[in-house]
TrEMBL record:
It holds the Pfam family Mito_fiss_Elm1. GO terms for biological process: mitochondrial fission. InterPro entries: Elm1-like (IPR009367). GO terms for cellular component: mitochondrial outer membrane. This is Mitochondrial fission protein ELM1.
Length: 425
């Protein structure tokens, strides 16, 4: 057993121990992530926490909404109001059933948390009072708490944590919170979230709704602007994935083309037409490919999936992932020689652009608003090229990989240093 060594007294030539740098009060060793159940949002938070060295020292909380039935149409409401309304509707339903059946039934109080009886009770709910109490009560022993949140539903609770425990926490909100940026210690958001302030956007937005378009004011000094979305992919992750997936991917004929297909959004509308365009393009480049692997997202429409599978499913060069575990996504990122990606997902594009490998995007002409600004910025940097079906996939080209997550982590450390705090895992 190795002997326990006490820290040496400080000297000009050695790193000072915590006890000589303000003690535990200025050292962050833990974090909490507040998500909204969306993997795209939560992965941004976890990616930042990972880049800060706290990957194994964070706890995930979620702001959950009631689900099912009419609840799917009520997501525009504030979370707290949505839950109260759901609770009332559940109680009305209970009493209605009792009256109709005319039976004596013992009523069990229904919790308004986790969506009542909607099957979400197993999720760790983001409880404001609990988190604030934890931050204050454990401060002297464990030091400050880093809070990282992302998504519209997390804005209220994250800002309230900072307001109620300002001296004990450092709150980072990822994605633009629309207004009141001073309610957070730091806001991390892509450049294209400020597209509504550009002259082009002002021409597209009717005057009577301009004030409701995010953001309402230019970024200030505590806003960190990124090119794309934060994520969990870094070189260490890719090295590990390359080793883990070696047996599955090393024997594949090269070059390996990976195709990631998402799904239409309100700002990137498409359907079978784009699927047919994609299939035609892939058939045209097959001659320059050794092998092709295709993956779909949870948002991919069935009609799009069916077109791709029907046209390419029997091709000996093509493998289509069936959605069964294990998910080969990390293996694809590590072993691919080039990517073709649909234009609808900022997160998906940001991940593949962090590899430095050729990235071809299809469907950008069908996107508008902030998506167009995002695609334009990547094209100007030489990071992406349009997929036309005339490409030679064996041709290699490169660019400085997107490194948004690591750069954002550096800005967090710099801001903490201004407060006299630092992160030590």
């Amino acid at each position: 057993m190795r002997p326990i060594r006490l820290p040496e007294p400080p000297s000009p030539t050695m790193v000072k121990a915590d006890i000589f740098e303000g003690g535990v009060y200025g050292v962050i060793r833990r974090a909490i992530v507040i998500g909204n159940g969306s993997s795209g949002s939560e992965n941004q938070c976890i990616g930042l926490v990972q880049a800060l060295g706290l990957a194994d020292k964070h706890v995930l909380y979620r702001v959950t909404r009631p689900r099912g039935g009419i609840n799917e149409w009520l997501h525009w409401l504030p979370v707290s109001l949505h839950k109260r309304l759901d609770y009332i509707m559940i109680q009305i339903g209970v009493y209605t059933r009792i009256l109709l059946r005319s039976k004596r039934t013992k009523l069990v109080p229904l919790s308004s948390e986790n969506g009542g009886s909607m099957g979400l009770s197993c999720i760790l709910e983001a409880d404001l009072k609990h988190i604030v109490s934890m931050a204050k009560e454990t401060y002297e022993k464990d030091g400050p708490l880093l809070v990282v949140a992302s998504g519209r539903d997390t804005i209220t609770i994250a800002s309230s944590i900072r307001r109620m425990a300002k001296e004990n926490v450092f709150v980072v909100q990822i994605q633009h919170p629309r207004l009141h940026l001073n309610r957070f210690d730091m806001v991390i958001t892509p450049h294209h979230d400020y597209y509504p302030l550009t002259p082009q956007a002002q021409e597209q937005v009717p005057r009577f709704i301009r004030k409701w378009i995010t953001p309402r004011e230019p970024p200030d000094q505590h806003v960190v602007l990124t090119v794309g979305a934060l994520h969990r992919i870094d070189f260490a992750t890719l090295r590990s994935a390359a080793s883990a997936w070696h047996d599955a991917f090393a024997p594949l004929p090269k070059p390996l083309l990976v195709v990631n297909i998402g799904g239409p959004t309100s700002s990137c509308r498409y359907g079978v037409d784009l699927a047919k365009q994609l299939v035609t393009g892939l058939l045209s480049v097959l001659a320059s490919c050794g092998s092709v692997r295709i993956s779909f997202s949870d948002r991919t429409p069935e009609k799009v999936y069916n077109v791709v599978v029907r046209e390419l499913g029997d091709n000996p060069k093509v493998y289509i992932w069936d959605g069964q575990e294990p998910n080969p996504h990390l293996g694809h990122l590590a072993w691919a020689d080039a990517f073709v990606v649909t234009a609808d997902s900022v997160s998906m594009i940001s991940e593949v652009c962090s590899t430095g490998k050729p990235v071809y995007v299809i469907g950008t002409e069908r996107c508008k608003w902030k998506y167009s600004a995002f695609h334009k910025s990547l094209k100007e940097r030489g990071v992406i090229r349009p997929f036309t079906g005339t490409e030679d996939i064996s041709e290699s080209w490169s660019y400085p990989p997107l490194n948004d997550t690591a750069e954002a982590a550096t800005r967090v450390r710099d801001e903490l240093a201004k407060r006299g705090w630092r992160i030590r895992p």
